[in-house]
Design a protein that fits this description.
Blueprint: H1 3-7, H2 11-17, H3 23-42, H4 52-58, H5 64-74, H6 85-122, H7 131-137, H8 156-166
Length: 176
Amino acid sequence: MSRSAIKAINWAAIAERVPEEQKQLFFAFKAKSDQYLRRMLANPESSPKLNWDYYKKNVTTPGLVEKFRKEYEALTVPYPADKYTSLIDSEEKQMLVEVEEYRRRSEKQIEDINASISSIRAIMPYAEMTMEEFVEYHPESHCGVVNNPSIWPHTPEMKEGEEAALKPPGEDDHDH
């Protein structure tokens, strides 16, 4: 991470999004990041320049300083390759698509719920309804007494018991 990148972190904005039960972990992470930043800022951004003339005057072994200088200048410390930024960017794009889909589904649900609320508000109060009006508004709760009479509690089990009781004696469900 570069010096400018670590300075650009908005810790206050992140802290607002951290759940209360994870605040301690967040503060521990921030303390480690601050410690890393202090250590990084304590060192210069580039390596110090060596005074090769000083070493040439004071080192008596011939060619040793030149050999070290050539090796020192040829030395490169590889910076780790960034393999994760592209993965994070693609994951962010995917998450934005999912968030947009969720938002659209939620808006559709809100519309449906508001339509249900409107229809419920349009219904006459139950205290003022007749039984026929109730059945008209809620046909799914109608037990069908006129066309399909049954005995209370009007459950499927009770219906099966009624049908069994109404069969003529000696008639079985088995085919002969």
